[in-house]
Write a structure and sequence with these properties.
The chain is 7% helix and 43% strand. It has 1001 residues and is mainly beta. Residues 1-19, 101-212 and 799-806 have low confidence and may be disordered.
Length: 1001
């Protein structure tokens, strides 16, 4: 079968299986060396990259295990070393050594004359004809040098031929040695090196490079300092238009690293290689927040029930006047302290075995005030440890074993915990009276008045233990990798879902939500507490096999399959509750994990109350093809299936906080069940006390991804890439409210149960995108990448609906197709530009500039990133209760036909575009039918390395976020009943500057 036929068969294929990244830095005398060639070899897989202006390189697709790295640079001795590739491994450090003059001359090949035939493969000094994948995270091959007419293989950075190689003739004699040595050094500079030593390569002191003497040569480290304060930062943006004094704040961070060979006299002679790093930060930030609060005139109104009066006292008085949408604004400082420690050990045992491990620890302490003056605190402790054993069975097979353990504890403490029983003092009963959960109930207003809320008390401890095995085997043109993982996860929660309860005011009783509040008449109420301690357990398995098959020099296939299975979560003591539902939702009854037989259907439920889904087989195939032997064009394609095995945690959390094991409700104020602030947490006889149910036959969702890209070299050191990506999602999560009906309609089944959310897996989604990328290789100190993406995403099951909980709740449970619309993450147009320029590189860039001008001008690196895109979709919301439930936020208004974006002065959306739904009908406005504010950001940085001595280097870097101080809004307010409809909800951060100073030795 020809290569062309094979390409046609595999045109729509998948990308490579996940692989580990590896990073490193190449230096000469302690300063970065750009243009060095770094080659990674695993069996017959060979990847090649070129170091950037900072001397750094990166491989994005190395398989875990042993890998042989070789660093080459004309005029320097090649370096070769075996490394271990695994997630979070220590970056490699390479120190080049200059060759003697005779070796430099011998190393340089004679360049071919114009029109001459290319030399055969494996000619010294010529890139090998063996195909090598392009390390860009995608399957690919690099053209053999013989086919590309001696063009250097383009990878991640500029293909830089050493000027030393082209400047020294092959027939040099000894009389020219001093001149040649100087020309070799100059050639290194002209290539774009950050080296600013104009001295001869043979004139360095004894401590230069790897010639450093004494025990200090075994160790390296760094000390860093990052400082940022409010002095040079821009003033936060004010939504009210009124200036608020900029709060003073400062961010201080410290970094220290140390590593080398562990040696203890008379105890350890040649110990393992170790690395220790420590970072700490003491940050104090501030943000400006705006809100609408009750005025003094409103507070003086009569009557106000005692419960409302007690809660009203927590609201601040207005400090902004003449603004009907925002009348209060203040700066809120917050503190965050962080300490982090990382350590690693690596030891080679004999010629076949390597053991290595790591340990990391982190502590974070935060304090966050609210607009009400509540000061909430949080503490996080985390650790991660791993142990690895790498064994080489021979030249063609490697095996890797790993055990990893991680644990994290997160504690959140609200302001009123163990301080004041706000609900009891206000005369509100029925909610949790545990001192740990003291505080005010949550208040929600439909008109845009600031809702009263505080964080929930929680102390959560999660831990994961993972056992992994993977191996690689080379046979001929096949590089076969296979492995398996077992992950045991424990989620231990000490928290309540909604212990203080929530009251929502929509104006249903009096026409004004604030008046309803004053009179103590909520439209809905909800509550969930009990079983504060929850012990969830889950096991996750996976196994994979992959074959990287080099079919021919111009065609590479990557074929494999992966199986993933995440078991549904169980609770250690069986404290999970689901609903046993008869067909048609005509009757429901709770079913408990400890009593797994449904009383209505007789169905037997597993311990998780959700049937396991073990069908997570994920075939994947990818190809890289060079259709024209003498061309730089590369075609890549791929197809793969990916399962979402992380859906069960949020489901278990909701099932663990339900009646009869806990107290839960979500009810609406009706004549049959009147609600008040004093007695608002009472169940309704017509509404089930369980607020959540999940389909026991829930399937795990998956996506099918296919991609095709074409890459080609262009004139002017440019590389062009065109990419098409398609994604089809199946079995997406959907939520709806059974037996509900629109306002003004007659209840079609008054005896049917309602008041609960039902979760199924019948959703689907699609996404298609086209991307054009134009990249300039590093040339004369300048590299850049311009990327434009056009995409469209549609679904009826999007996650993360704005202000609508974990999933998007359908408006009409009998018409789920009406939920199909743009995805919440759909961004139609996106443009990204990244640029980097280093001064004093190239003949035209001032490489040979000397004296004080050269010292002042050279070696500065300027980078910038610009991102511009259209806004994300938003959903118009008519905030009112869904009949038969205590749930708000899923009803949409009617669209009147008025121009949505022809807004009155001061607004960004036209309120006249929407109206209250007609009686007996659901709103006809589409989900995600509003386009949010466009996005723009420009970040920049300036940095330089100062060589202080042969062992010490000082790095200075200044980073600016939002360098133009451009105002970009994050979202619009889309609640049509709110006074803030059509206004920004917040603005992105304004310009800030951060300075980093780091000493390396």
């Amino acid at each position: 079968m020809s290569a062309q036929v094979r390409c046609a068969l595999f045109l729509f294929a998948a990308s490579l299986l996940p692989a580990a990244e590896h990073h490193g830095t190449v230096t000469f005398g302690g300063v970065p060396v750009p243009g060095a060639t770094v080659t990674a070899t695993q069996a017959d897989q060979k990847l090649t990259v070129i170091t950037d202006p900072q001397g750094a390189y990166s491989f994005g697709e190395l398989r875990d295990g042993t890998c042989t790295l070789q660093v080459e640079m004309s005029g320097f001795a090649p370096l070769t070393q075996d490394i271990e590739v695994a997630p979070n491994t220590t970056p490699s450090m390479w120190e080049l050594k200059l060759l003697p003059f005779s070796e430099i001359v011998r190393q340089v090949p004679e360049l071919p004359k114009p029109g001459a035939a290319p030399p055969p493969p494996n000619t010294p000094g010529v890139t090998s004809a063996n195909p090598s994948p392009v390390p860009s995270g995608k399957t690919g091959t690099v053209a053999p040098a013989a086919q590309r007419g001696f063009q250097r293989a383009e990878v991640n950075a500029a293909p830089t031929e050493s000027a030393a190689a082209s400047a020294i003739p092959n027939n040099s004699n000894s009389a020219d040695q001093s001149d040649l040595a100087q020309r070799a050094a100059d050639g290194l500079l002209i290539n774009g090196s950050q080296l600013n030593g104009g001295s001869s390569a043979f004139g360095q002191n004894a401590a230069f490079g790897n010639n450093r003497r004494g025990a200090a040569s075994l160790y390296n480290g760094s000390l860093g300092f990052i400082f940022d304060n409010s002095t040079l930062d821009a003033r936060p943006f004010s939504l009210t238009g009124q200036d608020t004094p900029k709060a003073a704040y400062s961010n201080i961070q410290g970094i220290a690293t140390f590593g080398g060979v562990l040696k203890i006299p008379h105890v350890i002679r040649n110990g393992p290689i170790f690395f220790v790093g420590y970072q700490w930060s003491r940050n104090r930030n501030a943000s400006t927040q705006s809100a609408l609060v009750p005025t003094q005139i409103q507070r003086d109104s009569d009557p106000i029930v005692p419960q409302a009066r007690a809660l009203l006292n927590f609201y601040p008085l207005p400090n902004v006047f003449g603004n009907a949408r925002y009348n209060y604004q203040t700066a809120l400082p917050n503190n965050s302290n962080r300490d982090a420690l990382q350590s690693r050990l690596n030891k080679t045992l004999g010629r076949r075995d390597t053991v290595y491990g790591s340990f990391a620890f982190q502590r974070i302490a935060t304090s966050n005030p609210t607009l009400f003056g509540f000061l909430d605190t949080g503490n996080t402790l985390g650790l991660n440890a791993s142990a690895n054993w790498q064994h080489r069975f021979g030249q063609r097979m490697f095996a890797h074993f790993q055990v990893q353990y991680s644990r994290e504890s997160v504690r959140s403490t609200p302001y009123f915990a163990n301080r004041e029983n706000v609900s009891a003092a206000a005369g509100i009963s029925g909610n949790d009276q545990d001192p740990a959960n003291w505080g005010p109930p949550t208040l929600v207003f439909s008109s845009g008045i600031l809702g009263l809320s505080d964080v929930q008390n929680s102390f959560n401890r999660n831990q994961t233990t993972t056992w992994s095995f993977d191996a690689s085997w080379n046979r001929g043109r096949h590089n076969i990798a296979f492995g398996t993982d077992l992950r045991r996860q424990e989620f231990n929660y000490l928290a309540q879902q909604n212990p203080r309860g929530t009251f929502t005011f929509t104006g249903a009783a009096t026409g004004s939500d604030l008046t309803d509040f004053f009179q103590g008449i909520p439209d809905t109420s909800s509550l969930a507490f009990g079983n504060a301690d929850k012990y969830f357990r889950q096991s996750v398995w996976d196994a994979f096999v992959n074959d990287d098959w080099r079919v021919s020099p111009s065609l590479t296939l990557n074929v494999g399959a992966r199986w993933e299975y995440g078991a549904p979560i169980t609770e250690l003591y069986g404290r999970l509750v689901n609903l046993d539902i008869v067909p048609g939702f005509s009757a429901v009854a709770p079913v408990i994990a400890t009593e797994p037989t449904g009383s209505l259907t007789g169905r037997h439920y597993p311990d998780s109350l959700v049937q396991p889904d073990k069908h997570g087989i994920e075939p994947r195939i990818g190809l890289a093809w060079r259709p024209i032997p003498a061309s730089s064009m590369i075609v890549r394609a791929g197809y793969g299936i990916y399962y979402n095995t992380s859906v069960y945690q949020s489901i278990a959390l909701q099932m663990a906080q339900q009646s009869p094991l806990s107290r839960s409700l979500s009810v609406q104020n009706t004549a049959a069940n009147p609600l008040t602030l004093a007695n608002g947490f009472s169940a309704s006889p017509n509404i089930t006390t369980d607020s959540f149910a999940v389909d026991p036959n829930l399937h795990v969702g998956y996506s099918q991804n296919w991609q095709v890209s074409v890459q080609r070299d262009l004139p002017g050191s440019l590389v062009g890439t065109a990419t098409y990506l398609g994604i089809k999602g199946t079995r997406g999560m959907q939520e709806f409210l059974p037996n509900t009906y629109p306002a003004g309609a007659v209840n079609p089944c008054a005896a049917c149960p309602s008041g609960f959310i039902y979760l199924t897996s019948n959703g689907n989604s699609t996404r298609e995108s086209g991307q054009l990328q134009l990249r300039r290789r590093l040339h004369n100190g300048l590299t850049a990448s311009l990327q434009y993406t056009y995409s469209k995403s549609i679904d009826d099951s999007a996650l993360g609906g704005r202000s609508q909980g974990a999933y998007v709740i359908a408006q009409n449970w009998l018409d789920l197709s009406a939920e199909r619309g743009l995805s919440t993450f759909d961004q139609r147009h996106l443009l990204n530009l990244q640029m980097q320029y280093s001064t004093g590189t190239g003949l035209g860039g001032g490489t040979l500039l000397s004296g004080w001008r050269g010292a002042l001008f050279k070696q500065w690196t300027v980078t910038s990133q610009i991102s511009a895109g259209t806004g994300l979709p938003l959903t118009p919301v008519y905030l009112t209760a869904v009949n038969g439930t205590g749930i708000t936020g899923s009803i949409r208004p009617n669209y009147t036909g008025a121009a949505l974006y022809s807004a009155p002065s001061g607004l960004f959306l036209n309120p006249a575009a929407y109206a209250v739904p007609a009686p007996g009908q659901w709103g006809d406005a589409g989900r995600d039918s509003i386009t949010g504010p466009s996005q723009f950001s420009l970040n920049a940085s300036l940095g330089r390395t100062f060589r202080m001595s042969d062992r010490f280097n000082l790095d200075l870097r200044v980073d600016s976020t939002n360098a133009l101080n451009h105002v970009a809004y994050s979202s619009w307010n889309t609640t049509v009943t709110s006074a803030q409809f059509g206004l920004p909800t917040s603005a992105n951060a304004m310009r800030s500057l951060q300075t980093t100073l780091r000493l390396r030795f």
